[in-house]
From TrEMBL:
The protein, known as: diphosphomevalonate decarboxylase
Similarity comment: family membership: Belongs to the diphosphomevalonate decarboxylase family.
InterPro entries reported in the protein's UniProt record: GHMP_kinase_C_sf, Mev_decarb, Mev_diP_decarb, MVD-like_N, Mvd1_C, Ribosomal_Su5_D2-typ_SF, Ribsml_uS5_D2-typ_fold_subgr
NCBIfam families in the record: mevDPdecarb (TIGR01240)
Top-level class of the enzyme under EC nomenclature: lyase
CC per GO annotation: cytosol
Pfam families per UniProt: MDD_C, MVD-like_N
Mvd1 C-terminal domain residues: 172-303
Chain ranges of the Diphosphomevalonate decarboxylase-like N-terminal domain: 10-159
Keywords associated with the record: ATP-binding, Lipid biosynthesis, Lipid metabolism, Lyase, Nucleotide-binding
Top-rank lineage group of the source organism: Bacteria
Organism, scientific name: Fructobacillus pseudoficulneus
EC number per UniProt: 4.1.1.33
GO molecular function, one term: diphosphomevalonate decarboxylase activity
Length: 321
């Protein structure tokens, strides 16, 4: 057996304009283009080496390899054959933070497998391939802000970085212990698509996607926050109005934090909320206000775990010793 190992690192990302629906489940094509911020503090490092069968270890714990086995088979059939792999991942994404660890995980895995096989792939190609593992992974190869173009087919649905900016944006991540029954993002978005309001959200999202890029270019943090909050809250309203098993990711704490964010804003702070497939609120703010906002949240909710995140780098390969 070959003892070659390839290791890659990818950071997770938070969508400011969300991906919440698939127009093609097989190809994992989204119904909307989305826009994200890569986060410096949260990442995954993944090493792959030959094994007897595809296996997955995350933070030293054996995991069900079904999802990555399917993805590895997709790569074997579409890019080039390779032996069974042992996949060893270290996830520096707090599990309760409700940040999509599948984004950094599938991006790091795609890059590690490409390196293992000496595939000479562009970032665009890596992004397209990772999309088949998890949509949000498409955006996790790039530093700072990234856009995932929805595209119309396998070829045209990929992400790329927006021009670099020194925008002092920060995120205060509120970690609420999960008491809500988990609905996976894949299942949640399929249900949301049955909302009578879905088409209107898609339409508005198209406009918000353009406006968000303009707000980033203009370094208008308040506008970025305003657009992101509206896009996210309207996305969560789709879950509540789904005709197929409507649901919500919110719990009481979510509501209380959202009220606090509004209160902070009324008091003159730069604070806007966004949420993904879970109850946790992420507060969009500026780097110079992040610690004050963190302290205010801690004062109001002493049990809450809070972390500050800032813009992060693109993916990288890690040299084996
Ligand atoms: C709410 O990327 O986890 O975080 O493609 O089915 O794996 P799959 O979905 P996933 O969905 C992420 C949804 C989201 C919004 C976003 O990241 O854009």
């Amino acid at each position: 057996m070959n003892d070659k190992t390839a290791t890659a690192k990818a950071h997770t990302n938070i969508a400011l304009i969300k991906y919440w629906g698939k127009k093609d489940r097989e190809l994992n094509l989204p119904t909307t283009s989305s826009l994200s911020l890569t986060l410096n503090e949260f990442y995954t490092i993944t090493a792959v080496t030959e094994g007897k069968e595809d296996t997955l270890l995350i933070n030293n714990m054996m995991q069900d390899p079904k999802r990555i086995h399917q993805f590895l088979d997709f790569l074997r059939q579409n890019v080039g054959d390779f032996p069974p792999l042992t996949v060893i991942s270290r996830n520096m994404v707090p599990t309760s933070a409700g940040l999509a660890s599948s984004a950094s995980s599938f991006a790091a895995l795609t890059a590690a497998v490409a390196k293992y096989n000496d595939w000479d792939l562009s970032e665009k190609e890596l992004s397209r391939l990772a999309r088949r593992g998890s949509g949000s992974a498409t955006r996790s190869f790039f530093p700072g802000f990234a856009v995932w173009h929805e595209g119309t087919d396998d070829e045209s649905s990929f992400a790329e970085a927006l021009p670099a900016t020194d925008l002092p944006i920060a995120l205060v991540v509120c970690e609420i212990a999960g008491t809500v029954k988990k609905v996976s993002s894949s299942d949640g978005m399929m249900r949301a698509m049955t909302s009578p309001n879905y088409a209107a959200w898609v339409e508005e999202s198209k406009q918000q996607f353009e406006e968000m890029q303009a707000a980033i270019a203009a370094k208008d943090l308040a506008k970025i926050g305003e657009l992101a909050e509206k896009n996210a809250l309207d996305m969560h309203a789709l879950n509540l109005t789904a005709t197929d098993r409507r649901f919500t990711y919110f719990n009481q704490m979510t509501q209380d934090i959202l009220a606090k964010v509004k209160e902070l804003r009324q008091a003159g702070f730069l604070a806007y909320a966004t949420l993904d497939a879970g109850p946790n609120v992420k507060i969009i703010t500026s780097q110079d206000q992040a610690e004050t906002i963190q302290a205010k949240l801690k004062e109001a909710f002493p049990k809450l775990r809070l972390e500050i995140a800032t813009p992060g780098p693109g993916f990288s390969y890690i040299k084996e010793d």
